[in-house]
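for the record, two folds in this file. i put them one after another cuz i was lazy. first one right below, seq on top, structure tokens after. the second one comes after a little note so u can tell where it starts
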Amino acid sequence: MVYEDFELLATDVQEVKEEGMKRILFQVRVPRSPCGEAIQGLPCEYDARQMRECLKDWERRALDWPAVIELGTWLGALLFPEPVRELLVRSLDLVRAQERGLRLRLLLEGALHNVPWEYVLLNRGGGEAATTDFLALLPNVSIVRHQAATLPAWGVEAALPARLVMALAGPSGYAALDLDEEQRLIVRALEKTPHIEATFIPEATAETLLPEGPAHLFHFAGHGDFERRMGAQPGTVEGEGMIVLEDGYGDPAPLSAGQLALRLRQAGVRVAVLGACRSGRRDDVNVWSSVAAALLKAELGAVVGMQHTIRDDSAIAFSGAFYRTLVAGLPIDEAVTNGRIAVAQLDAQDWGVPVLYLRARDGVVFPEYTADPDLEAAREELVVRAKQRIKELHGKAVTIKIGKMTQGRVEGKQEIEVVAEGGEATVLEIDELGGGSATAKQKVDKVDKGGSVTGVKVDLLG
């Protein structure tokens, strides 16, 4: 899928304390979108205590679908003031008509990095919001963080099979992690992916972190930390994130984000996945955000970090869909979206835990795989296409009907001259969408009174 960028800047963050309340003020701008720009800063704010209470339930895993919908509605009201909302709606309509995707690029400052914007919801139709209103669960929408930049030519060729290195570390002094189970989950997730060769590094140290030879993908399971120091502005925190390895004797041996970045770049790594752990968030510092920034600066194409812990079944579902899509040569946006939708059938909350930090402008970090004819079959397994042309519709027409969809991609087109009275036109009808992605294009010249047209109908998400 080809994506158009919708760049949203949330900057000029200020803390205002008054009458027992701490308000977080910021400005929102849209310097670029498929339908124009909004360069005049639009004021937004939220109550820090309200956000803290909201995230407390989120971190305690106390949210069901209604609670997550309530959270998403609130986040949408914060991030999309008018005319940003209008630009977003128009952009979504435009890219859908062009059979493209929309990449919502979030460029954030300060405390805004720790807000789970991946749960943002856009209720376009009014009335009661539904799970299908979450932007991150729309098949043609991607939510990414950080600035895009042109990538240099890769120094290490990416040939099949792709080499995944998974480093695991659980030093003393930190919360115990079931790393054997973590490794088992990845092995299970990759069982149906013959184009990936995985190497596991248990009790990883600085010396054993990366084996000899190239590595295309790096997956870390363990703890992160943050070295704090006071910032130049009063009340701000600066520092550097790190991953916590072992020293060969089971004790912690932190490796700074900068050092990790240098090693991964030298090995030829293009995508890093940073596993979740309970020390991943502390105070107002998102550790993985700091590490991801360093890795992107070192010219990795993309980093996937976890905002919080994630259930085992969810981790399996996400990893399997993510790696299968990525190694088929498709954009990492599609890989993350497919992973999210696969998780949404299992858990109301886990689908929003992954965060995509993207540097590659078009989202394609393995162009060699895209051009590899050996992967054509794998891509075709992920895509089903159908087109329907009707001159005059009196009954019911459905281009593609699916009972339960758990993976792959479906693209439907429908062209109708007249939908007569009693006619019902639907491009995609899915009983249960539990994974993969679906896009629809519908062109109807005339709809008589009593006729109806629907692009995508999903009875049950997950």
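(here's the note) second protein begins now
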Amino acid sequence: MYSKTYSAAVHGIEGQIVNVEADVCDGLPLFAMVGYLGAEVKEAKERVKIALKNFGYRLPPKHITINLSPADMRKEGTAFDLSIAIAILAALGVIPDEELNRTLFMGELSLDGKICPVNGILPVVYKAREEGFKKCIVPKANANEGAVVEGIDVYGAETLLEIVDDLNHKKKIPLTVVDTKKLFMQNQKDKDYNFEDVIGQENLKRAVEVSVSGMHHLLIIGPPGVGKTMIAKRIPSIMPELSFEESMDITKVYSISGLLKKEAYLVNKRPFRAPHHTVTATALIGGGIHPRPGEVSLATGGVLFLDELAEYSKNTVELLRQPLEDKRITITRLQGTYEYPANFMLVGAMNPCKCGYYPDRNRCHCSENEVRRYLEKLSGPLIDRMDMCAEAVLIEYDKLDGKQTMESSDVIRKRVKKARKIQLERYKKEAVYFNGALTPDLVKKYCQIKKEGQDMIASFFTDKPLSARAYHKLLKVARTIADLDESEGIQTKHLAESIFYRMNDKKYWD
């Protein structure tokens, strides 16, 4: 007999429906599986046979053939076990196949018939809804994650027996229901980090506010112990709250990476990723034998913070150049091409030299060559891609008593949200949402400056030549400063501040 069930694979961050066909006929006893299978899928044969035996049904001595299609797409992982087992049982007449054409199955089988959780449930349920499936049966541990998607029924099962009883109409599996909106609204704000804890560093805090308002990449440079990392950790606290659509897109990435917590199956806070400087290229960018998202994708919608930037492997950090421009990562392998999002705000922090105190010659004893070698760990093209550079300075003693009242994150966030709202209104007919994402054509359209502004930039160019990319970034930052000032046009004071943020990197790398 022949039967057909449906499962799914994850390709990039999207689900891909997989047809699981089973044919059971007379002939030499054989269990064959075909369909461009990875090692884990080939091993499903043994897991399914023993799980069925321990569940109480021993396979008859028949010729069993399993086909997973489309045959030109490589199948990886253990999520096909459940669908294969159901297809075999339907082909043997143990369960009816009347509902199988509108149900998607995903799950790994243990040898005793229990259903183990798998990664990537969220994008798979999304795809199932798009393809018109009525329900999905998934591991109970993944049920809440799948139930976040509205418009399709999701059922969580613990054992294969539960599913057989459900399909035979003996005992129904309870429908998993999640109040997605309530879950999304819970604990959005980070109470652990607040800018009111930061003493001094007013210029740096202003630079952070500008960078967040326009999603500009920021480099912080200064001596050790002055608060570079402390301020960077508080950046998400002044970023606008995630929209529900953004939350779902980010949750997809975390779902396929297996990083969703059982009690928190929806990402409702801006990501803040801070990989150690020993991170490998694959861990940072993504990829591997079985491609997975890297830190740049996990930081999508939030902040990728690289502390001690000059200590990272040069070959590794240089890989950021392409995603900083394209906002996505494309990984090509023999079995296919995978695309992951990389729309993050990069924040780097570093010391100006090996000892950390340059240009204070009272404390720094590095030679000019040593300083140059340290700074040259970062290439010109990478520095050119940073929109802004801000200095962190030593805090004066009389400010360290903690008696001053500092501005809170909520106050700064209100100004950031107001600037973002102005940008959303301005670009409602464009394919961008904030100034940092403007293309050269859009810069020309929305970042026009008057004659005195042009003269100011021309004077700066004469003294400190810039690339075309840096010129556009200078204008985009000026546009953001004007938005914070609620100014319709870019004034000379906005350009002056933008030039100041560009002069900081020139100070060290020229």
